[in-house]
Write a structure and sequence with these properties.
about 475 residues; mainly beta; Jelly Rolls; Immunoglobulin-like; five-stranded mixed β-sheet; 2 helices; 35 strands
């Protein structure tokens, strides 16, 4: 009897566990588990708290960093605005993705972790998929979801969101900061050639009327931004001029009395605070370089322009004055070639002119100094004996400047020349054909006698300067010295 009651109790317990398991396995997913039953949102703000533990994944659910435990919302508003979806407070990782179109034929708008911001158009339905960042496909039932906390809010646009409300800039330079997170786009608003945003984000507008004809430069100091310059009197009559992006500079010539409209937006959809900088374009920076840096009268000196235009319009001309009465004209980054007739210090200058007429000038002193020594002869005895010490004389010609010269002496060996000795000597200036003799001593060897004859080679190098004509800095004694045992 006791065993029978224990058995009955066991059966009841197992039955209860089976019912509990069956109930858990068959729990219904959320009502908005599928896109066709998406929770409709027609006004903002909106909030929702939802258990997505039993949410499933449909075969046609899009992929946004995963598509596990998906639930859907459909947002249709009566006005153009910027919507922010936030899942802060949820107890699991959440991905937010937004689409337009219709179920089965969706067009991607954005995909982000935890929160997303996007522009809406009045009357258009935007489908929002909330999914778990849990990976894997197909997802096992009852995994990946959790307690979802959802808020959908409208972001207020900046005061200069619309063209008609463009902020007027009255003085230069000017820095104007605006948060374009809530900015929208008006119907008929132009898309500039520097706008690569996707999805397209909103813009803010500024205007400036120049009191005189002058060159102006505008840029968005925020790296991921763009600016575009327009003229015209209404949104649908605007004509785009200069534009720039990624902190680039949009430079334009502003005519006196003309109002210019500046459109500022986020490059590739970047939002947040952006700063418009507008200024009178600085003058160009004139500069050039030349080589060789120690020119002589034998050199064709290369002069190259390296000027810089902060307005990035470029140069229409670069005028050269070489300081000796010669001039030339070229373009930006072009090079000129000039040879000087005499040593001296020459003031070389350039005047650069940008395509809009801004100018700048610069100059440098170019010192032309011709250093040149020559070995006219290497004197060696006609005959010598092994063990005998004799004098080798190197005659050096120098007509220009006193020079410190390093002279190396070599002797001929089978296959080339072998170093013997080196002297560093101050060589004075001697006019005409007069030379300075530098003497070396050499003791002939039995090896020289075995070969039977020796030639001596001298090489002269100016210390601390470049020899303008190095070809005559080397000479060999002739005829060779006959060496006897």
């Amino acid at each position: 009897m006791k065993r029978h009651r224990i058995f009955e109790a066991s059966v009841v317990l197992l039955g209860a566990l089976a019912l509990l398991w069956a109930g858990t396995a068959m729990a219904a997913p959320p009502a908005n588990d599928d896109i066709n039953s998406a929770t409709a949102i027609s006004s903002l703000p909106f909030s929702d708290a939802l258990d997505t533990t039993e949410a499933t994944t449909a075969p046609d659910d899009p992929y946004c960093g995963g598509n596990v435990a998906t639930v859907w919302y459909a947002i249709t508003l009566t006005q153009n605005t910027v919507v922010k979806i936030d899942t802060a407070g949820s107890d699991y990782g959440v991905n937010v993705s937004v689409y337009t179109g219709s179920p089965g034929a969706l067009s991607y708008i954005t995909c982000a972790f935890s929160q997303a911001t996007f522009n809406t158009t009045a009357g258009v339905t935007y489908y929002v998929m909330i999914s778990s960042s849990f990976g894997g496909y197909p997802p096992p039932p009852g995994t990946g979801g959790g307690n979802l906390v959802l808020s959908v809010t409208e972001l207020p646009p900046p005061a200069n969101d619309n063209f008609a409300d463009a902020v007027e800039i009255t003085s230069l330079p000017s820095d104007q900061t605006v948060d374009i997170t809530g900015a929208t786009r008006e119907a008929g608003e132009p898309t500039s050639s520097c706008d690569f945003s996707f999805p397209q984000t909103g813009t803010a507008w500024f205007r400036f009327t120049s009191g005189s004809t002058q060159t102006l430069s505008a840029r968005d100091n925020t790296y991921y931004g763009y600016v575009a310059i327009y003229t015209g009197s209404s949104l649908n009559t605007l004509t785009q001029g200069a534009c720039s992006y990624l902190s680039g500079t949009a430079t334009f010539v502003a005519n006196a009395g003309t109002t210019y409209y500046i459109q500022l937006g986020g490059w590739y959809g970047t939002t947040g605070p952006h700063t418009l900088h507008l200024e009178v374009t600085p003058p160009p920076v004139a500069s050039f370089y030349y080589y060789p840096g120690d020119p002589s009268i034998y050199d064709s000196v290369t002069f190259c322009d390296s000027s810089y235009d902060p307005g990035f319009l470029g140069f229409q001309s670069v005028a050269w004055d070489f300081g000796d009465g010669a001039t030339a004209t070229g373009g930006q980054y072009s090079c000129q070639f000039h040879q000087y007739a005499a040593d001296g210090d020459y003031t070389v200058g350039t005047v650069v002119t940008t395509v809009d007429g801004r100018t700048a000038s610069t100059s440098q002193t170019v010192s032309v100094k011709t250093h040149d020594v020559a070995i006219t002869k290497v004197n060696a005895p006609q005959t010598a004996k092994a063990g005998q010490t004799r004098t080798i004389t190197v005659n050096i010609k120098n007509n220009r400047y006193e020079e410190t010269v390093e002279i190396q002496l070599f002797k001929s060996v089978v296959g080339g020349f072998q170093f013997i000795s080196l002297q560093t000597v101050v060589i004075p200036v001697r006019q005409g054909n007069r030379t300075t003799a530098v003497s070396f001593t050499y003791t002939f060897t039995s090896g020289d006698a075995t070969v039977g004859k020796v030639s001596f080679q001298a090489i002269a190098n100016i210390v601390g300067a470049r020899d303008a004509l190095p070809a005559d800095n080397i000479a060999i004694s002739t005829p060779p010295t006959t060496v006897n045992p």
